Give the backbone structure.
Amino acid sequence: MGNSFLHWLHYIHKHPWITVFEVVSVVLVLAGGLRHWNSPVVILAIDGKTLTLHPRKIPTVRDLLQQQKIILKPMDLCYPPLDTPLGHQLSIKVTRVDKVIEKRITKETPMITELTHLKPNLRHVLVQKGTQNEIHEDVEITRHDGQPVTEKVLKSKTIKKPVYTLTLYDEKTGLPAEMYDLVKSKKLIMRATGYYIGEKTVPSTITFLGHKLRRGLVAIDPKVIPLRSRLYVKGYGYAYASDTGGAIHGLRIDLAVKDKYEEAKFNRHNVPVYILEKASSW
């Protein structure tokens, strides 16, 4: 086995074509190595990519970028500078730079001037009034390769906004359940009257929706305010649209009250009514 292998090697070395093949292979390898030896190796990082280049007869970084058809925008950064001669193992980093203008609104902590807990009607609610500063800014953001690096406020304006909210508490847990922005809620000025259990003109102690009449339930014209609407009646409190009435048309509202004395307090008074939302229960 060993003698056969040696004989085969001896035959290969003596074959003229094999010798030519060896010489040509060595020449090609050396030529390729010399070509890369004479040209610099450049590492180019740009647009999230890293390229290894072997440029030939390209004198500067600027010429290399032009050869690679890379266009720099006015704010783009290049390191080393564009006039730097190309050298062996040179690293080039191109950073894309742009600026954007962002509009921002920052809300400061509200300044509450009035805070009222109301418990007589149906559920515990908290009504808060005050003001809140909103800071409106135009901010210029400088980005490098899409990432923000610096910010500059170009314009700033402070606007004082009214705060008027109603917080509805959960009956079981006693924790806040819903918050309504009365500033944004639909508001109606309605003519109020009062009615109570035992009044001769009140035909029933059960409302149209089947609730036993109690303070906080109100009668409305369903064409104006839908039944099952949660309401806030200023001066009266939280309310629920549970009833209708033959004399309740248009901007009229009947407020369930405790007695004839409270009835007199609301009769023939105009009251602001805020429509919060329609709900299956109060």
About this structure: The helical segments are 2-14, 16-38, 61-67, 260-266.
